[in-house]
């Protein structure tokens, strides 16, 4: 372990230094680098995109929580730490997560890869809604999330600066802190960041929610070197560590309905991770080449997890699994301007992910002490290689973006159960996109986007045979075909000094949907078997929108999401779809002095549930309304600081008891959301 920094030590460390300036946060909302692969105004992008700049009060929660209540987005939760982004009803398997543009691969039944970084070190999170396989390959059916950490900046003269944030929250007795140091000069740029948080079990309106506490720590180091006026090199080092993370949504009781084949003698069993970490080493070059620009990166990213199954009756773990997922990758692209209104991008990408879990089980009832090696699979690997081209053209007031990509994805393993042959599979796929946006006026920019994306099966779907929380024994299938989607989106965007809005309508069809089919046979442990197979079509359609209206010193804002999903195989609603919701806010922003904002979020009842696909494991969820409030004071220059901000945020103001429909857990026993929570923050910059 590179380091383990406790919050109290971090607080002492970052006393001399705060949050990004308000004016930079305003600029973030107009620029996106993920949707087209290069920096572009959102009004020039024929697709729904979102740029979310974290506030100091967000640093006490996992990064995935940033997406709750955002148009077209939701969060799938299995505990306080495990919060995965959901884009237009599609979950973690169908969403590509990037950190600084680097793909974050893992294969985990519980927890969230989006939580493997600290919000306190984030500059912004960019979301591309809808298919984006042309630039990002397998998995980008629902879209792409790019977490962008603090960036290096060259300056005309040597400069030093930094920022810090400190926070404390009431519902979980949490403390958090983050500090960044920046150095810039004409030829060198450096960022060093540290962050940590520690939270206890949180309080819901009905009492303490057990096993929701955890702690994390982070280290960030970025360096950029300007070799010449035409060439830059960069290095990006990151480490994130989690300690004592539990997934209460995984809890199942042996011998009872939904017990997932757990022996009754074990009582209630819950999955947890005593230790886990993510490490990234990435380096790249950006250089002028001919009349264009070449950008290339190589990286190694490792996700290590200790996965344990805790028995309440035994008061110890009866399953112990250590697994490391390592991804080696490289990506290059060449941007060639062809005149003033035409840019051609040609690129290539390759990565290989490996995983070799070491699982030990105690399965000799009633003693449960035999410590038998029982690996779900051995030496699994998935290799992907892709070539892509993207053409950006402007015809007067119309911006057109077209793209085409070819990918080859190969999966293999040394062993799956007793099988050692028939485990390899190679798939060739083609993805494409075509979009156009026309600027009638700053407030009227209609657009259309059509495209195709794909998702190759992950390691668990290919190779893992195991009981899961839905009461079935799932059998992996190495010969799965990729899911393929076809989507259309039409929308309107506009922005001027008096209004900023986005509206989108979309329809997605997914063929060869990967899911478990009930076979009618039982596994040796008596559980009915679900074989992972390609099923019939899934269709998702809906609408989303947002607006922000300045009203003198005040700003009113609103957003909404309406979704429907249909499982054509079983002729029923698609499982675990987020219900419709509306968010309305009003406040008084300020670059200096007093600011405040209030927000109401209303979520509808979800009565469209899947009964066949989930074997009755999905229940209806009641609607709810929550209110949040925030206020504070921005001091401007004070002492040795360029800015300082003292803030208070009250979440779930009226202490409403509820849970999101996307909360994982045994039907009817999902964990309640956090009750009233008061967060105090101090942030500043120098």
List keywords for this structure.
686 residues; mainly beta; 22-stranded antiparallel β-barrel; five-stranded mixed β-sheet
Describe this structure in words.
This protein is mainly beta and 686 residues long. The chain has a 22-stranded antiparallel barrel. Strand 23 and strand 24 form a beta hairpin. The protein is globular and about 70 Å long. The two termini are 31 Å apart.
Unreliable sequence segments? 1-29
Largest sheet, described in full? 22 strands, antiparallel, barrel
The beta-strand count equals: 40
Shape: globular
Q: What is the average per-residue confidence, as pLDDT, rounded to a whole number?
A: 91
Measured distance between first and last alpha carbons: 31 Å
Category from helices, strands and their pairing:
mainly beta
What is the percent of helical residues?
Answer: under 10%
Figure out the total of helices.
4
| Beta-strand residue percentage | over 45%
Estimated radius of gyration? 25 Å
Summarize the structure.
The protein is mainly beta.
Summarize the topology.
Layout: H1 7-13, H2 22-28, E1 31-32, E2 40-41, E3 49-52, E4 73-77, E5 83-87, E6 95-99, E7 102-103, E8 122-129, H3 133-136, E9 143-149, E10 159-169, E11 174-184, E12 188-199, E13 203-204, E14 207-208, E15 214-228, E16 231-253, E17 268-289, E18 292-311, E19 316-337, E20 342-355, E21 358-361, E22 372-373, E23 380-395, E24 398-412, E25 425-438, E26 445-455, H4 459-463, E27 465-467, E28 473-475, E29 483-496, E30 499-511, E31 514-522, E32 528-534, E33 538-551, E34 554-567, E35 572-573, E36 581-588, E37 593-603, E38 624-634, E39 643-651, E40 677-685
């Amino acid at each position: 372990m590179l380091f383990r920094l406790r919050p109290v030590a971090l607080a002492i460390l970052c006393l001399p230094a705060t949050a990004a300036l308000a004016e930079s946060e305003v600029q973030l909302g107009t620029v996106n680098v993920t949707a087209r692969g290069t920096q572009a105004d959102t009004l020039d992008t024929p697709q729904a995109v979102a740029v979310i700049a974290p506030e100091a009060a967000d640093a006490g929660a996992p990064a995935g929580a940033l997406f709750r209540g955002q148009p077209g987005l939701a969060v799938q939760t299995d505990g306080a730490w495990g919060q995965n982004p959901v884009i237009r009803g599609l979950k973690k398997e169908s969403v590509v997560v990037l950190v600084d543009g680097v793909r974050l691969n893992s294969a985990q039944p519980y927890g969230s890869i989006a939580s493997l970084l600290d919000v306190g070190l984030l500059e912004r999170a960019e979301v591309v809604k809808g298919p984006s396989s042309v630039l990002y390959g397998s998995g980008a059916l629902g879209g792409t999330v790019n977490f962008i950490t603090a960036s290096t900046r060259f300056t005309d003269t040597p400069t030093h600066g930094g920022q810090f944030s400190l926070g404390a929250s009431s519902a979980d007795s949490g403390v958090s802190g983050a500090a960044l140091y920046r150095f810039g000069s004409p030829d060198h740029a450096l960022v060093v960041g540290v962050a940590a948080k520690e939270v206890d079990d949180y309080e819901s309106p009905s009492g303490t929610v057990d096993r929701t506490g955890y702690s994390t720590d982070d280290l960030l180091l970025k360096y950029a070197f300007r070799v010449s006026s035409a060439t830059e090199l960069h290095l990006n080092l990151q480490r994130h560590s989690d300690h004592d993370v539990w997934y209460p949504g995984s809890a199942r009781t042996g011998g009872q309905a939904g017990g997932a084949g757990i022996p009754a003698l074990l009582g209630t069993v819950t999955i947890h991770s005593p230790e886990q970490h993510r490490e990234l080493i990435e380096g790249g070059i950006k250089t002028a080449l001919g009349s264009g620009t070449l950008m290339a990166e190589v990286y190694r990213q490792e996700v290590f997890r200790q996965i344990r199954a805790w028995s309440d009756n035994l008061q110890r773990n009866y399953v112990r699994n250590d697994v490391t997922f390592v991804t080696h990758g490289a990506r290059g692209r060449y941007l060639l301007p062809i005149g003033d209104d035409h840019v051609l991008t040609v690129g290539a990408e390759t990565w290989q992910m490996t995983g070799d879990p070491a699982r030990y089980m105690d399965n000799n009832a009633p003693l449960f002490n035999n410590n038998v090696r029982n690996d779900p699979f051995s030496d699994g690997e998935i290799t992907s290689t892709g070539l892509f081209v993207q053409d950006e053209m402007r015809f007067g007031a119309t911006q057109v973006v077209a793209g085409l990509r070819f990918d080859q994805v190969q999966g293999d393993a040394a062993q799956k159960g007793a099988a050692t042959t028939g485990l390899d599979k190679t798939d060739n796929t083609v993805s494409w996109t075509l979009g156009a946006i026309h600027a009638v006026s700053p407030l009227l920019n209609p657009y259309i986007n059509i495209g195709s994306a794909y998702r190759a099966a992950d390691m668990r779907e290919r190779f893992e045979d195991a009981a899961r929380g839905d009461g079935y024994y799932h059998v992996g299938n190495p010969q799965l075909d990729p899911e393929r989607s076809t989507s259309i989106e039409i929308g309107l965007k506009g922005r001027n000094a008096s209004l900023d809005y986005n509206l989108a309508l979309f329809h997605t069809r997914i063929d060869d949907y990967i899911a478990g089919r009930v076979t009618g046979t039982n596994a040796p442990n008596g559980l009915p078997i679900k074989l992972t197979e390609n099923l019939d079509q899934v269709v998702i359609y809906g609408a989303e929108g947002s607006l922000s209206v300045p009203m003198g010193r005040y700003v009113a804002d609103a957003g909404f999401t309406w979704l429907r999903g249909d499982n054509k195989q079983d002729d029923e609603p698609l499982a675990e779809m987020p219900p419709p919701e509306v968010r309305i806010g009003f406040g008084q922003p300020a670059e200096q002095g007093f600011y405040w904002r209030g927000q109401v979020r209303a979520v509808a009842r979800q009565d469209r549930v899947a009964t066949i696909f989930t074997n009755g494991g999905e229940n209806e969820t009641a609607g709810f309304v929550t209110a949040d409030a925030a206020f504070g004071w921005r001091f401007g220059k004070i002492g040795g600081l360029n800015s300082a901000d003292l803030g208070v945020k009250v979440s779930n103001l009226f202490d409403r008891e509820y849970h999101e429909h996307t909360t994982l857990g045994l039907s009817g026993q999902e964990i309640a959301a956090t009750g009233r929570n008061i967060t105090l923050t101090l942030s500043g910059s120098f």
